[in-house]
Amino acid sequence: MREFDSAIERRLTEHLHARTNATLSRGRLEQAAREWLYRAYVAIPRSRTITVLVRGVVQTVALQDHHDLRRYVTEWTVQGFIKELLSHRPGEAMTYLEWLRRPPHRRSMKTLLELFAKYQWLEERIGRGLPILISKERQHVYARRLRRRRSSHLAELPPHRRELEAMCFAAVCLGTLVDDMLRLVEIRITSIWNWGHKVVADRLLPARMRKKSEILAELRRLVTDKSLSDEAFRTKANALLITDQPNIRQSRAADVREVLSRNARRIRPILQLLTKLDLQGEGGGGNGLSWLDGVYDDGIGTFFVDKAPVWARRWKTLIEESDTQTSARAYETATAWAVRQGLRNGSLYSKYGFDYADPSSHWMPAEIWKGRRYGYQLEKRPPQCGASLHRQSRGGTARGAIGTSGGRRCR
To answer: Domain range holding 392?
Structure first.
């Protein structure tokens, strides 16, 4: 058992600095310090010593984060934003800070527009200074502190903490607003599709069944009509079975596409909102949804079918309709479904979002992975052979089969 000296204290401080990438909680950091000392076979000092050490680490990290913030955002910008954040909204009693902290309401278009108004207000003021080069976990900690603090207490904070908490709150709030909007958009698109399936099931299919029943009833009447000759019966039967029936049998999905292409009132407001969010991504539409701007800026009459990307092949018949308005509505509906797919698979994202962020940002940096990889290792050493690992992951039955099989062992 070694004694707690200055060298151990320096190594413990470096370890706690590394742990601040995930948390700034003093209780968790103190617990991490005790665990590190226990694993290093070092005598654990009294609680006051660890508390003072953790407090110094947290203060040093906060000062370093404020220094990094000032490298990309000027003091004039930060002070002006804090002053505007604490000012009152025109014609209202609440400040902008209270307005931003107010949670969203129900899942409606009105809620989407309110979230978009907050997004626009924040994006105009801090959009150029983002992203902040501070770990997301610490940004959430600083933002949570300001969210729980009274507006009147903000002036009592030290300047570096006030600026750091205000800017991190704005960055986290902007990312949360984007995530909430895109999540609501995904929910609304799904509900629109469910509505289209319900319309087809409740109206189109029963109508077709009634029409088929009427045709069968008419055929029965013609069969029992003795006044008709064979040639007259064939003529009338062919007229019922061939002329009135479509040449191509439509599937239920095709019926849903046709129903949704006639309803622009539900879909167009969503796309008009999405074109203003500056979504990023690579796909058939190019950079995000910028290829839709011309449809709304120039008017619906200037819509051209040759703008349709590759993913709209199932909508080809409706998009190439001779009627310009019908083809434009079909194009918008196909775009809405492609937006939902892009949000779900990560190919469409926002540069401000957290959940709907660039997929490459979810990877852990190499220098952080080297320090944390021991926590992600399995309790049992995984086999080096891929086939054996596949069999081992199948459960107890597969593990029993491994013991009885005569296959080659992995070394």
So the answer is: 364-402
Q: 3-state DSSP call for residue 376?
A: helix
Give the other-Cβ count within 10 Å of 369's Cβ. 11
CA dihedral 43→44→45→50, nearest 10 degrees, is 140
Q: Of the residues 72, 91, 115, which one is the last residue of a structural domain?
A: 72
- Does 314 map to a domain? no
What are the residues facing 2 on neighbouring strands?
A: 42
pTM reported for the whole predicted model: 0.69
Residue 302 in any domain: the answer is no
Pair of tokens at residue 61: 């990290």
* The three-state (H, E, C) secondary structure of 377-388, written as one string: CCCCCCCCCHHH
C-alpha dihedral, 353 to 355 to 357 to 359, nearest 10°: 170
Count how many domains the chain has.
2
Q: Which two tokens stand for residue 51?
A: 């508390």
Last residue of a domain, one of 72, 96, 123: 72
One pLDDT digit (tens) per residue for the chain, 411 residues:
888 888 999 999 999 988 888 788 888 899 999 999 999 898 888 999 999 999 999 999 989 988 888 888 888 888 888 888 888 888 888 888 888 888 887 778 888 889 999 998 998 888 877 778 888 888 888 888 888 888 778 878 888 888 888 889 999 999 899 999 999 988 888 888 888 777 777 766 666 655 666 677 777 777 888 888 888 888 877 776 665 555 455 666 677 777 777 776 778 888 888 878 878 775 443 445 555 554 454 444 444 445 545 555 566 666 666 666 667 777 777 778 778 877 887 778 888 888 888 777 777 777 777 776 766 654 445 545 545 544 544 444 444 444 444 444 444
Which secondary structure element, helix H or strand E, spans residue 319, and what is its range? helix 316-319
Q: Are 188 and 107 in contact (CB under 8 A)?
A: yes
DSSP per-residue string spanning 25-67: -HHHHHHHHHHHHHHTTB----HHHHHHHHHHHHHHHHHHHHH
Q: Helices 159-199 and 264-274: crossing angle, nearest 10°?
A: 160
Looking at the domain assignment, is residue 152 inside a domain? no
Number of neighbouring beta carbons within 10 Å of residue 69: 21
Q: Is residue 23 in a domain?
A: yes
Query: Measuring CA to CA, which residue among 306, 339, 334, 307 is closest to residue 318?
Result: 334
String of DSSP letters for 112-161? HHHHHHHHHHHHHHHGGGPSPSS-HHHHHHHHHHHHTS-GGGGGGS-HHH
